[in-house]
Amino acid sequence: MKKLILAAVVVIGGGVQSVAALAHHGWAWTTGKNIELSGVIKQVKLGNPHGVLKLDVAGGTWTVEVGQPWRNKRAGLKDGDFAEGVQIRVIGEPSANASEKRLKVERLFIGNREYVLYPDRS
Amino acid sequence: METFLADLKATPLAQYLRTSRWGYAAVSAAHILGIALLVGAVLPLNLRLLGAWRIVPQSDLVRVLVPAAVAGLAIAAIAGAMLFSVRAQEYATIGFFQAKLVLITLGVVSALALHRGYGFLLEGASRARLAGHALVSIACWVGALVCGRLIAFVD
Question: A7 in contact with B at a CB cutoff of 8 Å?
């Protein structure tokens, strides 16, 4: 029994140590002010629960959160619009943690076409 | 293991859930329902084993809350496996996810050991034995819930 308790404590401690970054849900973790980034997509992970791109921007690589499938589709985006090598301009809120290059997108441009993920926020 | 995770992610169900709006939401809700039922049953039962509500016969509570907890665990595990399949390889590497699986295993093993020793109704177990199990059980299930929630807050 004591071993079980000890094991549980060790496991919970181990989990806590692996904390890496802030939330994806909602906007509580962002600065509250939009910025703009332009860059080339170098990695794409779409689908539930979150769509995430890695964007090569002057000055480094940003992790850019786009919508879930339904949100991207509603904005007019098709499968394949987010592809590696595509030049993209995104407008959204960066993480309030300045050491973290992470941004949640409100709207974006591919070429001259605008796609609005969060119409109520723009 | 890698092959298994890749195969899991390639199943038609996983592919459907990865792109579906309401399907994913429904499975997510089912997962929460299972957790609510499980923890909602386990906590009061363990508090009784620790000495709360002595006026209520322990066996009466066991008859209701143990099956409720088992049902909750089954629902949460099935829905959880479906959510896991959507991004199997990524979730498998997250520390909180691994910790959660260990805690669930410990919680189940602790409960099985107790029932194996004292039967379904836990008759004849000493107060110390019941209290020891209750503390482990609370730590495991609350710990598993917290670790599970934190999966959404890390990369």
Answer: yes
